[in-house]
Amino acid sequence: MTNFAGVLFDGIAYGSLLFLISIGLSVTLGLMNFINLAHGAFAMFGGYLCVTLMSRLGVPFLVTLPLTFMALALAGWSIERTLVHRLYRASPLDQVLFSIGLTFISVAVVTYIWGTGQLPVNLPSYLGGQWKIAGVNVSVYRLFLIALVAIITLTLVLLLVRTRYGAMIRAAVDNAQAAGGLGINVAAVFSATFALGTGLAGLGGALSVDILSLNPNYALNYTIYFLFVVTVGGAGSIAGTLIAAMLLGVVTIAGNYYVPEIGGFVTYVLMIVLLLVFPGGLNRRSILHGDTPQAASFGGGPVPARFRATASTDPRLPDARWRPAEIAFWVVLAGIPFVTPGYNVLVTQILITGLFALSLDLIMGYAGIVSLGHAALFGCGAYAAGILARMGWGEPFSGLVAGGLIAGVVGYLSSFIIRGSDIARLMVTLGICLMLSEAANRAVSITGGADGLGDIDIWRVLGLFAFDLRGFTAYYYALAIVFAMFFLARRLVASPFGLGLRGIRESHRRMPAIGAPVRRRLATVYTISAVVAGIAGALLTETTQFVGIDVVSFGRSSDILMMLVVGGVGWLYGGIMGAALFLVSREILADMNPTYWQFWLGLLLILLVFFARGGLHGILLAAYRGPRARSA
Amino acid sequence: MMKLSNPIALLLGAALLGSAPAMAGDTIKIGFIGPYSGIYADLGGKMQEGVKLYVKLHGDRIAGKKIELLFRDDNNGSPEVAKRLTQELATRDNVDILSGYVSTPSAMASVSIATKAKKPMLIVQAATSGITEKSPYAARLSYTLGQVAAPLGSWAAKNGIKRVFTLVSDFGPGYSAQAVFTRTFTQAGGQIIGGVKVPLGSLEFGPFVQRARDAKPDAIFAFVPAGQTAIALMKSVAERELAKAGIRLITTGDVVSEGGLDAIGNSAVGVISAFHYSTAHDSPANNAFIKAFTDAYGTKSRPDFMAMQGYDTMATIYTIGNQLKGDLSGDKFMAALKNFKMTSPRGPIEIDADTREVVQNVYIRKVERRGDHLYNVEFATIEAARDPGK
């Protein structure tokens, strides 16, 4: 019995930690509809500031907390005034790119100031150690965290419900124009709310320093956790966030204590189940909106109205004819090894990444399904090809077939649970990806686990061309496959089926009226996308002759999403252009400085958001239409 | 300027800049592939500091030829990036020696290139057994997990620890650390009374440590990756007051490596570990290394095993390079590496002629505070330990 009480206490304490690092995001995402993935970066600065104040200036820990809150609120306010406020009307994908760019810059800045190592944290002794309460060992610091959660929750609820400021936010979020007409300074209210969010992030960061270790990757390491809490809780709902954090905390800790064998899966299963049952979050009634579910308005229900915004919608009917520029593109690709053979491997990897991004574009750009877990399918293909080759059958084309097949089956099966609002789909796909990653990690005898799968012997292509050291065979093999897949994808999106998908993307409610089976169409395109992703994965395995566990990682999923957005969603070439821009600039920047290149990459992303809406496609379109627009 | 202009040439699709062969004869190029940004940046950064320190102290020439160091970021040890960089270093930059490789997948994916290009591949870290078997051109200057975990098992059983609970991260290296420790510990008469595997992404070690505590063992054997995971584990251990319950903590040395020791703080005092290197090792070679490192980088960066291994890699290349009068072609270099002996800051080392693994002392150490810093103070030595996996 004392065991159970101890586990329950630990669970609540863990839930408190999750609440503290997430609540700031719930404020910016839920109240302002701003997707601030730089939340972790603000928390990280909070942590570093708190520790520096203590160790350098000797400020007592309890005094650093309000100071950290104020400093980060001020920082958030300045960034909101200069940059963020320009993005409120931008598409969520632009907001995501901007905040990821900000995060990259933060990581580089923190590395520059504090170094790469772990920072020592020495909390006052009165917060250390354990108390024995009713036979249960209770950690003092955790008790302190739980008490703070109660105080912060209460303060926030009072602030948002009972004060004039709360009333102004509600009015401004609901209808900015009308609120402005009533004399409310909407811009100031939004600035204050953003500052509140970043201040809370900083406070959460400062409070977590003793449990989560402080290093420059803090900004990225915990993203999954707070996205998780906020989505499950229902963005903008303080009660929902609290309940979600506690539920996740208690279930995770209890799972880890009682059934450590499956501990790694418990959290993900819980997340997926909760999101399937409550697609809009646990508490659909947001404090601000009364009956209007905030999380649903974020995605606009099953139709991702806002995520679609960057997809350039050409009002004309799709035209399947090859344009000269397109033909030139492939011809240039075929010529690259003759001109710069030193870059064969890099361009091969760009092609494969581009194919993977194409698979995401099929569901995202054409059918409006966003995914943050597409690496799950890529990984299935990569492992299938690798395992087949290790079983003694290294024929390259069979590997591609195996990869596509396995990924297709997994994609078809998972298409049944990928539903609900955008954000719910985003998190369910992420959950599936994380579960597969954990499964690959556990199944060491099949996948090689964290050490990866080596000894993959791939035979000659067509029995003629061996994979050579300079990468010529790999290059042309990959180019042929990628071109073939592009060819098919072009036909697909221009076909009646492709047109039907666009119809669903535009209005899933009207499509049934003309007799289109929406669910079946979506399942079909998801499966096709999975097959393409699987083939891309198999291609990576065959050209690398190794499968690392990172083929199924969250990082690969989010990278591909970022590349696709950078390149432009919904024109097939976005992925390959984005992959080229991303990988080539990473290569150049990392070559100039292997430690701080992320700073410049972050800056590049931010510049793209402000000066090139719609990604590279946007730039190309503007260049193409520019002269005509002027002449008209 | 060459470095910058190459990728731009690619962008423009112009010129044959990329394939320009290196000027053979007057320089020696050494490529270091590793994580210089991201999660493992600390490991890569320390390696780089060790490498540069050696060049600073011993000049930038081997047998009159100028040394050129190329550092390439492998994006968190991604195998496909590491392999690509290896291929590019071998073909485009035409390096003489491939080195670096901090994570096992990065080394595993790249090792076939060493064979194809016939270039020596000196692995600075990647600690999973079996990598060097994949190519006659691969050698490892670090250690293997088994090499340090095996002596700890026998030492524990002979030193009053009878019942052990194991706590390892739930991934391949965790399984092998657990298996090796269990084998030597039980062979020497110890008893494993239980074990738990912690999911890799865990932020919270509380429930696992509590489970271990509830089993009432004499000691907990722990292996988790160095860095933030190790620190999270040690914080939970402190909070659950294992010492008060009379339970000792024994680990492999990476859990209490000098890089993270001060971040763990005083709660690490008393932890017993087995490892091939401690900065507190008392020998003229190590004292000189520590002094030079501190002079070069100040107090902001503490030397650790990664810095030492980077330094040793350069020492090996310099010694053999001078011996071969600057001719570092693959076969000659690998032949000279057989039975190569050196006095390293860690103690005497030798490269095994058959396995190309380091034969070295493994030390049993205890964390103690000396002045401002915590140190692993050695108190027992297992001489000339080999990788038990071979």
- Percentage of residues in DSSP E strands of chain B: 15-25%
Measured distance between first and last alpha carbons of chain A: 80 Å
Number of helices of chain A: 26
Tally of domains of chain B? 2
Number of helical elements of chain B: 12
Question: CATH superfamily name of the largest domain in chain B?
Answer: Response regulator
Regarding quaternary structure, what we see is heterodimer
CATH architecture of the largest domain in chain B: 3-Layer(aba) Sandwich
The rounded Rg of chain B comes to 21 Å
Task: Tell me about the largest β-sheet of chain B.
Answer: 9 strands, mixed
Classify the secondary structure makeup of chain B into a structural class. Answer: alpha/beta
Strand order of the largest sheet of chain A: 1-2
Summarize this entry quickly.
Chain A has 632 residues and is an all-alpha fold.
Describe this structure in words.
The complex is a heterodimer of chains A (632) and B (390). With 632 residues, chain A is mainly alpha-helical. In chain A, 69% of the residues lie in helices and 1% in strands. Chain A has 26 helices and 2 strands. Chain A has helices at residues 2-32, 39-57, 61-82, 92-114, 140-162, 164-174, 176-181, 186-208, 218-221, 223-233, 238-258, 263-277, 294-299, 324-339, 344-364, 375-390, 396-414, 422-442, 444-447, 472-494, 496-506, 518-544, 554-567, 574-592, 597-611, 615-631; strands at residues 130-133, 136-139. In chain A, helix 2 (39-57) packs parallel to helix 4, helix 6 packs across helix 8 (186-208) and helix 14 runs antiparallel to helix 20 (472-494). Chain A is globular. The model of chain A is unreliable at 285-313 (pLDDT under 50). Chain B folds into 2 domains: 7-143 and 283-356, 3-Layer(aba) Sandwich (Rossmann fold), CATH 3.40.50.2300; 145-275 and 362-385, 3-Layer(aba) Sandwich (Rossmann fold), CATH 3.40.50. Mean pLDDT of chain B is 89; it is low at 1-23. In chain B, helix 2 crosses helix 11 (305-323) and helix 8 (228-239) packs parallel to helix 9 (258-264). Chain B has helices at 2-12, 41-58, 79-91, 104-117, 145-158, 172-187, 206-214, 228-239, 258-264, 284-297, 305-323, 330-337, and strands spanning 27-34, 61-62, 65-73, 97-100, 121-123, 138-140, 163-169, 191-198, 219-223, 248-252, 272-275, 341-344, 347-351, 358-370, 373-385.
